[in-house]
Write a sequence for this structure.
């Protein structure tokens, strides 16, 4: 008989397995060789990198989140996040191509019928089509349930009127998941429904592209819907399911943003470390000055802590943890703040060189900021976590 | 075309953590395991041949601890179709002779046209196992392949081997056993598709009893070789760096080599 004690090591994966390491390394090599050399130009021109989107498609990276029966690779959340992390380490805009592809397709994964999945997933998995997620409106950001876009039933179709703002890939996507009010009299969280809009469509227009601080190659669009007709067969779930679909989507997509943040932070740490090893002042490597060495150590500790929380959150969410919202919010909160702090410190380590575009850390610092803002601001993440802790009031 | 590739998990030479146990055997727990380098070259050759043939399979064959599937996964991700793993606690500490007998017996359970093996493995570097298996199973043995050209219609295989003057060409009837080196060409990186596809590939395990081998004749108990003594290589002498102008530097390098009768 084998005796056990309560001190037995907890079961479960606390190291990445061979498969995950292989996958991470495969994406890392591609990111180093093909993505990193383009990152500065993508940032400078602010143009969507079609070539890099093609690269991700050709190497089956965009296929990762999709089921194998529809041409995907059937990767679980951790796998997708490992890829987002490695791409973002080189270029946050490129990491976001995969993260948004997953964000946009999650409503179909979570609420789509088998027919809907078979209809849309193959072209998304092959990377031939891109998909965007359109929830936010000019007046409905953190208060997403307050949106005003409407969808009125008209025979076998819905007519959508209104508009969206801050929609990542909104101008380059072939499919846009639009959330709209189908019953304005219903309770706050039963007003919305979700629709897959196929672009181009009459009544669908891109009215503005934002000029942004960071992720400049990733187009952020304002969309206008004017009598836009969408077949009823494109509705995801039932009428009134929209809010629930959006929230469950964000529970699973926020780790993708955390992965982007960890990747950006890791990239900055590597640049700062290499610089501190090379740069000499007062006759020695600046990294050997205790103040710089300590900054690098704190940066490394922060990145690793954020990474481990992300991986753990992925595993918990995939295992169907009841508190998936909490894990998702925790990892984005920690990773986003870490990315901002680490990239800011990286600029500090490089001094004047960090402030100019001769080195990538100023770009990384600008890119990092968005991870504290989108898919729920850090304040919203804290709200989600606090609610999970406190429960609802009696 | 069916090709069996002998695949051995060895301590990762890049880990810098290879070390021996006090009894002189390799400490396999000390460093992460990877597929032996020479095995990856022959695996790449096998994958290319089966891809070119448009049909067939590449089957990995290993004798290794029960943790081997983790290491074999990379080979499956590169494109091998399935694996066969002989694993048994009694095999621990086996010498090259026992390994040869076990792999030869396991090979008899598989249908194949060709068997590929790395010429040696980076842990033991005995280099006798492939030839031994060929001898025990009555297979032609073509060693040090730098190029492999099977002819399925004629059931013959031709191997090119680098010689001081060019190539030797060896030819034999199939089935045959071929050992190869890095001269066969760089192994591929596993693709994402390959990595994910490896999840659904199977590794069949065989125990000694299934091969009809008496456990007392293998492992530490049945070992025909024993490490009597070992010591780490002497530390390298200090590197001499020449920083003079190219002409002067070249002169000094030539003088250095001439002094040691190397030029």
């Amino acid at each position: 008989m084998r005796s056990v004690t309560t001190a037995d090591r907890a079961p479960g994966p606390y190291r990445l397995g061979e498969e995950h390491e292989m996958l991470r390394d495969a994406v890392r090599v591609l990111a180093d060789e093909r993505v990193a050399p383009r990152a500065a130009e993508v940032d400078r021109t602010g143009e969507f990198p079609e070539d890099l989107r093609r690269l991700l498609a050709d190497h089956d990276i965009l296929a990762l989140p999709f089921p194998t029966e529809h041409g995907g690779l059937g990767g679980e959340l951790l796998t997708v996040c490992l890829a987002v992390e490695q791409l973002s380490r080189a270029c946050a805009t490129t990491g976001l191509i995969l993260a948004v592809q997953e964000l946009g397709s999650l409503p179909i994964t979570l609420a789509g019928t088998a027919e809907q999945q078979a209809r849309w997933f193959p072209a998304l998995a092959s990377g031939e089509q891109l998909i965007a997620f359109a929830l936010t409106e000019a007046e409905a950001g953190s208060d997403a349930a307050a949106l005003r876009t409407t969808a009125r039933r008209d025979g076998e179709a819905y007519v959508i009127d209104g508009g969206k703002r801050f929609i990542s890939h909104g101008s380059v996507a072939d499919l846009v998941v639009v959330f709209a009010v189908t019953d304005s009299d219903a309770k706050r969280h039963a007003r919305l429904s979700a629709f897959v809009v196929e672009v181009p469509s009459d009544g669908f227009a891109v009215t503005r592209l934002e000029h942004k601080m960071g992720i400049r190659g990733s187009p952020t669009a304002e969309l206008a819907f004017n009598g836009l007709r969408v077949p009823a067969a494109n509705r995801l779930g039932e009428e009134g399911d929209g809010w629930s679909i959006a929230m469950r989507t964000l529970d699973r997509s926020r780790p993708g943003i955390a992965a982007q943040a960890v990747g950006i932070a890791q990239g900055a740490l590597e640049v700062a470390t290499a610089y501190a090893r090379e740069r000499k002042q007062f006759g020695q490597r600046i990294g050997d000055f205790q103040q710089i060495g300590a900054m690098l150590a704190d940066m490394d500790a922060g990145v690793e802590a954020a990474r481990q929380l992300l991986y753990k959150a992925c595993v918990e969410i995939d295992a169907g943890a009841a508190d998936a919202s909490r894990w998702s919010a925790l990892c984005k909160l920690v990773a986003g703040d870490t990315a901002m702090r680490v990239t800011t410190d990286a600029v500090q380590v490089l001094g004047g060189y960090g402030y100019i575009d001769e080195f990538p850390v100023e770009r990384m610092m600008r890119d990092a900021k968005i991870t504290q803002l989108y898919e729920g601001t850090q304040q919203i993440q804290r709200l989600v976590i606090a609610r999970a802790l406190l429960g609802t009031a009696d | 075309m069916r090709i069996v590739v002998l695949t051995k998990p060895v301590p990762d030479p890049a880990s810098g953590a290879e070390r021996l146990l006090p009894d002189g055997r390799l400490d396999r727990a000390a460093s992460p395991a990877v597929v032996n380098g020479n095995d990856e070259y022959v695996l790449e050759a096998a994958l290319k041949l089966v891809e070119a043939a448009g049909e067939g399979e590449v089957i990995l064959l290993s004798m290794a601890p029960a943790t081997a599937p983790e290491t074999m996964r990379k080979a499956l991700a590169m494109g091998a179709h399935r694996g066969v793993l002989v694993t048994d606690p009694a095999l621990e500490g086996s010498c090259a002779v026992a390994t040869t007998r076990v792999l030869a017996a396991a090979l008899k359970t598989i249908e194949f046209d060709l068997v590929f093996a790395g010429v040696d493995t980076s842990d033991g570097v005995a280099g006798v196992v492939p030839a031994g298996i060929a001898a025990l199973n009555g297979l032609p043995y073509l060693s040090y392949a730098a190029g492999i050209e099977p002819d399925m219609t004629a059931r013959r295989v031709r191997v090119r081997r680098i010689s001081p003057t060019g190539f030797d060409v060896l030819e034999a009837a199939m089935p045959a056993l071929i050992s190869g080196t890095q001269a066969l060409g760089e192994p591929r990186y596993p693709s994402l598709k390959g990595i994910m596809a490896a999840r659904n590939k199977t590794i069949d395990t065989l125990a000694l009893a299934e091969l009809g081998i008496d456990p007392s004749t293998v492992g530490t108990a049945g070992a025909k070789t024993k490490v009597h003594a070992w010591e780490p290589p002497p530390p390298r002498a200090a590197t001499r760096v020449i920083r003079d102008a190219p002409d002067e530097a070249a002169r000094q390098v030539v003088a250095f080599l001439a002094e040691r009768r190397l030029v």
